[in-house]
Specification:
Helix content: 40-55%
Radius of gyration: 23 Å
Number of strands: 4
Structural class: mainly alpha
Strand content: 5-15%
Distance between the termini: 22 Å
Order of helices and strands: HHHHHHEHEEE
Number of domains: 2
C-alpha cells in the first residue's frame, strides 16, 4: 500500500518542482529572443551571457541594418522578464542548497549524503530525496519497479507470468531519473528498442 507523504515532505518537494518550472520558462524566454533575432538574420546572440543589453545595441540584421525600433523594444522587454526569472531561479537554488546542508554537525540529511557521491549534483540529490526516498520499499523488486527497471505482473486475463516492456513513459517518473538505451538497429534507421524484462 502506498504511503502518502507528510505535509512537510510535500512542502519540501515544492523547491525542486518550482525550479523545474522556472528552468522551463527560462528556456521559453531564451528561445523567443533567439527566434525574434533569427527572423531578422541575426545569429549567435546568447541572452544568458553577461552584457546582454550592451551586445543588443551592436547587433545588425542580415542585410546590415540596425535592429528595428519596435523589435528592439520587444527584445528588451523579454530581457527584463528573463532577468526577473534568473533572480527567482537563484533564490530557489539557494533554498535547495539550504535543504542539502546538514541541520547539525552530527547527522547529515539523506540529500547531503547523496550530494557527496561522485556524479550526483545538488539538483539530482534534492530530487531523489524529495521524490523518491520518502517511500518505503518492501524489497528490491519494488525499488526496480519504481525506477521502471522491472515489469509488473499482468493483472488482467491471460497468463499471469508474462514479460512486460519498459518504455520511456514508465522509465522516466516525471523526468526524475534514467534514460532509455538506444541502439542502432540498421544503417539508416535509429530508433529506441523496447527492453523486454521478464519477471523472475
Amino acid at each position: 500500500m502506498a504511503r502518502a507523504p507528510t505535509p512537510q515532505e510535500e512542502d519540501r518537494r515544492r523547491v525542486c518542482r518550482e525550479r523545474k518550472t522556472l528552468v522551463g520558462e527560462r528556456v521559453q524566454h531564451v528561445n523567443r529572443i533567439k527566434g525574434l533575432l533569427f527572423a531578422q538574420g541575426v545569429f549567435g546572440y546568447e541572452p544568458l551571457r553577461k552584457g546582454r543589453r550592451e551586445r543588443l545595441d551592436d547587433l545588425r540584421t542580415g542585410d546590415g541594418r540596425l535592429l528595428p525600433v519596435h523589435l528592439k523594444a520587444q527584445i528588451i522587454r523579454e530581457l527584463d522578464r528573463l532577468e526577473v526569472l534568473l533572480e527567482q531561479l537563484k533564490t530557489v537554488e539557494a533554498e535547495r542548497d539550504a535543504l542539502l546542508k546538514p541541520a547539525t554537525d552530527e547527522a547529515a540529511s539523506p540529500a547531503a549524503m547523496l550530494a557527496r557521491l561522485k556524479g550526483i549534483g545538488p539538483e539530482t540529490a534534492a530530487v531523489l530525496w524529495t521524490e523518491g526516498l520518502f517511500r518505503q520499499f518492501d524489497n528490491r523488486r519494488h525499488v526496480a519497479a519504481y525506477a521502471g527497471l522491472a515489469g509488473c505482473r499482468n493483472t488482467g486475463s491471460g497468463p499471469s507470468h508474462r514479460p512486460q516492456f519498459v518504455d520511456q513513459k514508465s522509465f522516466d517518473h516525471d523526468g526524475m531519473l534514467g534514460y532509455e538505451p538506444r541502439r542502432k538497429t540498421s544503417l539508416g534507421n535509429q530508433r529506441a528498442e523496447k527492453i523486454e524484462v521478464g519477471i523472475r
